[in-house]
Design goal:
- There is one protein chain.
- It contains eight helices and three strands.
- The protein is mainly α.
- It has a three-stranded antiparallel sheet, with helices on one face.
- Strand 1 and strand 2 form a beta hairpin.
- Helix 2 packs across helix 6 (about 110-130) and helix 2 crosses helix 8.
- The chain starts with a helix and ends with a helix.
- Residues about 1-10 have low confidence and may be disordered.
C-alpha cells in the first residue's frame, strides 16, 4: 500500500524552461511548479500571451482542437459519421459566424492578445512535428490545422454554451430525479 511519503517522492520536479523563438521580442521563462502549473515571466505582453498559447497547447492541444471542431461542426471529419448530428446542430448554432463578428468588433489590444496567443499555439504545433503531437492525433490519424484568433473565441463560445446548458438542465434533472424518488 502506498504511503504519503511515497507520494511526496513521486512528485514531479519543478521545471524551468526558457522559450526561444525568433518571433519573441525578449526573454520568456516558463516555470512549472510541482503540480505542472505554468508560471510565465515575460518582458512584454506579446511574449507573455505567446508563451501562454505555447504552454496551453503543450498541455491541452487535443482538447483545444476538439472544442474548436465541436463549435464549428467538424467532428465527423475525424470521428466519422457518428458525429454528424452533433455537427449539424453546432453548424445551426453558427458559432463560427459569432466568433468572426466578435473578432471584427474587438479592440486592437484584444486582437493583438488573441493573435499572440495563436502564434504560441502554432509554435508548439510546428515544433512538435507529427510524431510528438498528443496521442489522440496519432490514434485518429490527423494533424491539427493552424490555430487562429477566431479559434480561441470559438473555444470560449462553446464552453459558455455548455455552462449555460448545464444551468438550464440541472434543475430539470433534479426535478426528474425527485419525481422518480417520490414514486418509489
Amino acid at each position: 500500500m502506498a504511503k504519503l511519503s511515497d507520494a511526496v517522492k513521486l512528485k514531479p520536479e519543478v521545471e524551468t524552461t526558457t522559450i526561444q523563438f525568433l518571433s519573441l521580442l525578449g526573454q520568456v521563462v516558463v516555470r512549472r511548479d510541482e503540480r505542472g502549473i505554468p508560471f510565465i515571466h515575460a518582458s512584454n505582453d506579446a511574449d507573455l500571451y505567446f508563451a501562454q498559447g505555447y504552454a496551453t497547447a503543450s498541455d491541452r492541444l487535443w482538447q483545444m482542437d476538439f472544442l474548436r471542431r465541436t463549435a464549428c461542426g467538424e467532428l465527423a471529419e475525424v470521428l466519422g459519421p457518428a458525429a454528424l448530428e452533433v455537427d449539424k446542430l453546432h453548424r445551426i448554432y453558427g458559432f463560427r459566424d459569432v466568433a468572426e463578428k466578435l473578432l471584427e468588433r474587438a479592440s486592437v489590444q484584444t486582437r493583438e492578445v488573441l493573435e499572440s496567443y495563436a502564434r504560441g499555439v502554432n509554435a508548439f504545433i510546428e515544433q512538435s512535428g507529427t510524431k510528438s503531437l498528443p496521442l489522440e492525433f496519432q490514434v485518429l490519424s490527423y494533424q491539427p490545422r493552424a490555430w487562429t484568433a477566431i479559434d480561441s473565441l470559438l473555444c470560449g463560445l462553446i464552453s459558455s454554451d455548455e455552462c449555460r446548458m448545464a444551468a438550464v438542465l440541472e434543475p430539470c434533472e433534479s426535478a426528474t430525479v425527485q419525481r422518480g424518488l417520490m414514486r418509489m
